[in-house]
Every structure is written in C-alpha cells, then in structure tokens.
Amino acid sequence: MGQLTIEARFNGPDGSANGGYTCGRIAEHLGSGAEVTLRMPPPLERPLDVERDDERLLVRDGEFLVAEAVPATVELDVPVPPSWDAAEAASARYPGLVEHAFPRCFVCGPTREPGDGLRIFAGPLGDGLFAATWTPGEVAPELVWAALDCPGAIAVGFPERGETLLGRFAVVIERLPARSERCVVVAWPLGEEARKLYAGTALYGEDGRPLARARATWIAPRL
C-alpha cells in the first residue's frame, strides 16, 4: 500500500516515535475508528512498509513487524467533562513537571516549546480522573490520537510506575476540533492485569461535547 515515515519531531521516548501519533498515522488507512497494536517502538525518520492483509494493516520495518491495525469501535462510558478552569488547575498538578522519563515527548514533554510539542499535561482532577487543557494550533486526526495518548499513561500511574509504554490503542473520532478551540482531555484508569494497565481517555470540545474517545493498553516495566 505504500510507505509511512514518522518525522523526528514526533518522538515519544528519545529515539522512537510517539505511540499515539504513530497509531493515528496508521489509522488514516482505516477510517474514523481503528485499533492499533504496537509490536515494537516505532522508529523515526525511516520509511516503513504498509501492507494490507484482508482487513488488517501490517506496518513493517524491513523484516520486523512494527504494528498491526484493524477497524474498531470504542464502547466507553465517558465522564462529564470538567470546566476549562478546573482542567487548567489539574494541569498545574501534572506529575511530569517534577519527574519525567521522556521530557521531550511530542505530546506531554515539558521541555517542548509551545507550537512545537502539544504540551498536554494531565494532572489529577479527583475521583480517579485526570484532566488537561489543549488548544490545537494544527488540526489533523493523528494529532487527536496523540492528544488522547499520554493522559492515559498518567491515569495508570506514569511516571511513578516507570517507563510505561503504549501497547494497544483504539480510537473513534466523532469530530475534529476547530483550530484554536479550547478543548479538555480527560483520562481515567480501567483496571489492570499483570503488566497490562488499561485506561480510557476522551477529548471534549468547547461546548462540552465529546469529540473523540479512546481505550488504551499500557505495558508496565518488568520488576
């Protein structure tokens, strides 16, 4: 089907691509709802082969399988969103401002400049919820996927748990935000099983309506 290259700007950990952004780029081939499973850290600045196998997409780096994707829906009860002010106050409590394993992450890295990274800083809101504000300067589906990614890691205990990595990500987008729309991201834990940690995330528009929702599986480091 062609090739896919993730530019160096869209990194997560140093040296590899942000998982949510990468999943969003892969999902472009499947429509508004997809589930992507990452099989290895996605490389940067290297053409990856995209192949179709019936309904599945396979993304390869030479002989190595990077990711696979299938069409999917996301059945998820989303919470009532907080106000912009409440989400902004939660962002000020973002634990990554104190300690961060990936401070240059495109989505949640505090050392990225405004307009370069997304700077989505999810902090505790209360009742097990985490929230952040986001005003998109660019609008694209893969940026919505990215915005829904890192807040889920915070909800399952990053950075306290260590270098938690995205394993599987399912997203449905109802509507893209408008440029400069004041959006709120909310994340919450959905349980865990051994090293698998589950999280839900949702993106809300300025009117409080959900724009997108996601279910993620995070992989905790080995003890």
Keywords:
223 residues; alpha+beta; Thiol Ester Dehydrase, Chain A; 2 domains; 11 strands; globular
Question: What's the short story on this structure?
Answer:
By secondary structure, the chain is α+β, with helices and mostly antiparallel strands. 14% of the residues lie in helices and 35% in strands.
Proportion in helices: 10-25%
Q: Please, what is the CATH homologous superfamily of the largest domain? A: Hotdog Thioesterase
Mean pLDDT: 95
Name the quaternary structure: single chain
Q: How would you classify the helix and strand content by structural class?
A: alpha+beta
Describe the biggest sheet? 11 strands, antiparallel
What is the alpha-carbon Rg in Å?
Answer: 16 Å
In whole angstroms, the N-to-C terminal distance is 40 Å
What is the third-level CATH name, the topology of the largest domain? Thiol Ester Dehydrase, Chain A
How many strands appear in the DSSP assignment? 11
Whole-number count of domains: 2
The coarse silhouette is globular
Q: In CATH, what is the class of the largest domain?
A: Alpha Beta
Q: Strand share of the residues?
A: 25-35%
Given as residue ranges, the uncertain stretches (5+ residues, pLDDT < 50) are none
